[in-house]
Amino acid sequence: MKTQLLVMLVLAASTTLSQTIPQQEWNAYNSVVEAGFSEQRLATAKSYYDSINFGAALVIHRGAVVASWGENTRRFMLASMRKSLMNAMIGRAIDEGRFDLQTTLSELDINDKTSLTNTERSATIEHLLTTTSGIYLPSAFEYQGWKDRKPERGSHQPGEMWYYNNWDFNALCAIYNQTTGKDFFEAFQNEVADPIGMQDLRDIDGLYYYEPESEHPAYLLKMSSRDLGRFGLLYLNKGHWNNQQLVPASWVAASTQSQVTAFENQGYGYLWWPREISGHAAYSARGAGRHTLTVIPDMDLVMVVRTNDYSGRPLQGRENEQLEELIVNAATEKVARKPRLLPMTWKQTKAPKVVPGLPINPDIVGEYQHPIFGLMTVEWNDSKLTLLGKPARFNMISTGNYFYFIEDAGLTTTFIETDDPNLIGKILMKRLDGKHVLVFHYSSKKSH
């Protein structure tokens, strides 16, 4: 009887102290004070958030929501945060015996349109994971600044120098798909996203982005903050979720600690960024525009910070890190013994009313040029119109004759038929009914 009582007390204590797995829907703390946060300091963080072009921010303590600011159900582009998602799939593949860290590109028969040298083919999986391969070839989805700073080909041996290199990251996806016989996006959905209960991720949100210089595409994703929060909790729980070990615990531990020195005072793990926030050991997934998913294990804390890169300026400098520091410094560590949890109510992205049943003019399908964002393609996919523009695919939701709402991006578009050869296939911005509207010009007589 005493043994049974002791077990019951231990189980009760663990449930009270660390509720780290949201179920089908999230719970939120009834008050930030019960969650162990200073109301005044968290308000200061919120004021900072409101003063800058953040798209969303989510604070999760012990598996429940402390703060949800902005549009945490909206699918923003992940940018390089996608690489930390790839980490989970590589870890699973290694655990399945598909390859190990020291397997070379030569052994995997990985090459590119520009043939690799024997030295480059000696680079290993570990070199790709730590972006130290020494392979400085053109790669898909590479920013101009990266191209300008890229070392001369052959200037470094594998493992000799850290250089943030999309060739390494894209090759990892090619290796995963080739060696497992799976598609990364489908496998991530089935083996990680569905088991941890991601609510917003869909097939359309993943995109292989090819460029002519390389046969290895970038693997791009859009994802909501609340789905990212679940992924952060998976790693906080050492890869374990609802009695399943989805990612090996040893892999999580190795990936989230420094494996190489990236630059002064900054290490790099296996597709994760180890760091310190206000004296706490942490690790982050990072993406261009200052998107971050940050896990602080000793605080049982996950933070997601997003920029609205569909409109307005991206976050700059240390703006995202300053918000994280304000949030961390708001924690008082005086958590209520039995905090009251309520079902979470999310701020939903406002979308216009859908008008069903409108006919689709096939002439609007085709390629268009935007003066800033370049080539955009209107496609007919699975009985739906979609817009493909660098670097994502979006659903087009009919809101009236030749008017569409671009889901996630939050843009309104319209299509105008024209015979003007200077306008056919062009996208212009106009102001209609008090709103900025993207106007696509098409012709039923001339291909665009």
Task: Provide a quick synopsis of the model.
With 448 residues, the chain is an alpha+beta fold. The protein has helices spanning 2-17, 39-50, 82-95, 105-108, 118-121, 125-129, 144-149, 166-180, 184-193, 225-236, 249-255, 319-329; strands at residues 27-29, 54-61, 64-70, 76-77, 206-211, 214-223, 240-241, 244-245, 260-263, 266-268, 273-277, 280-287, 291-296, 301-307, 341-343, 366-370, 374-381, 384-389, 392-400, 403-406, 411-417, 427-432, 435-442. The longest helix has 16 residues, at 2-17.
Protein model, in words:
The chain contains twelve helices and 23 strands. The protein is α+β, with helices and mostly antiparallel strands. A hairpin with a 2-residue loop joins strand 5 and strand 6. Helix 2 packs antiparallel against helix 12 and helix 3 packs across helix 9.
Descriptive tags:
disordered N terminus; 448 residues; 29% strand; 6-stranded antiparallel beta sheet; 12 helices; 26% helix; 8-stranded mixed beta sheet; alpha+beta
**Helix tally?**
12
Strand content: 25-35%
Tell me the strand order in the biggest sheet. Answer: 16-17-18-19-20-21-23-22
Shape: globular
Rg calculated over all Cα atoms:
24 Å
Question: How many strands?
Answer: 23
Poorly predicted runs are: 1-18
Q: Helix/strand-derived class?
A: alpha+beta
What percent of the residues sit in helical stretches (DSSP H or I)?
25-40%
Mean pLDDT: 91
